[in-house]
Design goal:
Mean pLDDT: 83
Radius of gyration: 16 Å
Helix content: 40-55%
Structural class: alpha+beta
Number of helices: 6
Low-confidence stretches: 1-16
Strand order of the largest sheet: 1-2-3
Distance between the termini: 31 Å
Shape: globular
Strand content: 15-25%
Largest sheet: 3 strands, antiparallel
Length: 193
């Protein structure tokens, strides 16, 4: 796992997986909507990397990006390549993400709240009961309730008994967010509709 601020990011802030334009847009929205002068951080769940952009709300520009070498695509390839997540696949995906985030001190972004416009997080918000197209706030309890449903499906609950999206992408996003919240002491993710 590499946490390399700016690694693989061109001088214009773009690369094939950084989500730089999306992150910059989310940064601007978070700055405008944040109710206080605390630090803010925005995340993008890329295919190969998870990217965090953080900084002081009053700063014109965020700090250099922080990239974790664990993105949704990597988890799907390694743990959910056969489609629907299995119990073993979920457990090994959790271990992979824990290994990535545990190498860092808790609170790497310096805040207990994250912001995102990421479609994968919108899907998680919808699974948690938030209507599409509106802002949602997800705390760890909400994430855990969705994860419990995913775990039940991995243990054999029929797909027809739950409305969670099938396949590995949703599972990968949920595992990343869950472990990031646990180990980085994130209390809430504000998902911009």
């Amino acid at each position: 796992m590499a946490v390399d601020p700016g690694a693989g990011v061109a001088p214009d802030g773009h690369d094939d997986d950084s989500g730089a334009p999306v992150l910059r847009h989310a940064w601007a929205r978070a700055r405008a909507a944040s109710p206080d002068d605390a630090r803010i951080a925005v995340i993008h769940l890329g295919g190969r990397h998870l990217t965090v952009l953080a900084g002081e709300r009053e700063a014109a520009e965020p700090e250099p990006p922080i990239r974790f070498d664990t993105g949704m695509g990597r988890l799907v390839e390694r743990h959910f390549a056969r489609g629907a997540p299995t119990a073993l696949g979920l457990e090994s995906a959790i271990e992979t993400v824990e290994d990535a985030v545990m190498r860092l001190p808790a609170g790497i972004a310096g805040t207990s709240r994250l912001w995102s416009t990421d479609p994968a997080l919108r899907a998680i918000a919808a699974a948690a009961g938030h209507p599409p197209g509106v802002d949602a706030r997800l705390d760890l309890d909400a994430i855990e309730r969705v994860f419990d449903r995913l775990a039940a499906r991995a243990l054999g609950r029929p797909v027809s008994q739950d409305t969670l999206p099938p396949g590995g992408d949703f599972a990968a996003a949920l595992v990343i967010v869950r472990e990031l919240m646990h180990h980085q002491r994130i209390e809430e993710i504000h998902v911009v509709g």
